[in-house]
């Protein structure tokens, strides 16, 4: 169990729409972590830890300074990451297809973020937060899937309630 992932996951799950910069930072961290595992094998441990933090900081700086670019970046990264996770979970993806599916999922994610920012942000932050929480507990596949779905739905409901309250005001 990794407490920081649980805390960040919970923040994204229930407050992701309000903490857009955190979502972009987390996506930068996750993608840099995945890449550093593959690309930095045999390198010092400090380098394998530093690169994901730099990726996360770049994501946060993008979100704060250039919000439109950050929206596209986060949609692209989240879309690519989640399509690969989904295909791996369903055992439908070969190792050599990862980049192709990542790019296709990334393009779809970026377009959805551009066209439907608020609703997609709620869903993406709920999925990202749920993923971080579930992965922290290392559950077997069936319980993990059930917990994941319950968390995603609860995150969407909680964030959507805040969304509807803002519209009424």
Overview of the molecule:
The protein has seven helices and no strands. The chain is mainly alpha-helical. The chain has a domain at 3-68 and 117-168. Helix 4 packs across helix 5 (98-115) and helix 5 (98-115) packs across helix 6. It starts with a helix and ends with a helix.
- Secondary-structure element order, N to C: HHHHHHH
Tell the overall outline. globular
Ends apart, CA distance between termini: 41 Å
Number of helices: 7
By DSSP, the count of extended strands is 0
Strand-residue fraction?
under 5%
Please outline the major beta sheet: none
Helix content: over 70%
Uncertain parts: none
Q: What would you report as the Rg, rounded to the nearest angstrom?
A: 16 Å
Mean pLDDT: 83
What are the salient characteristics of this protein?
mainly alpha
Briefly, what is this?
With 169 residues, the protein is mostly helical. The protein has 7 helices and no strands.
Please describe the topology of this protein.
Elements: H1 3-15, H2 20-39, H3 45-65, H4 67-89, H5 98-115, H6 117-137, H7 141-168
Helix pairs in contact: 1-6, 1-7, 2-3, 2-4, 3-4, 4-5, 5-6, 6-7
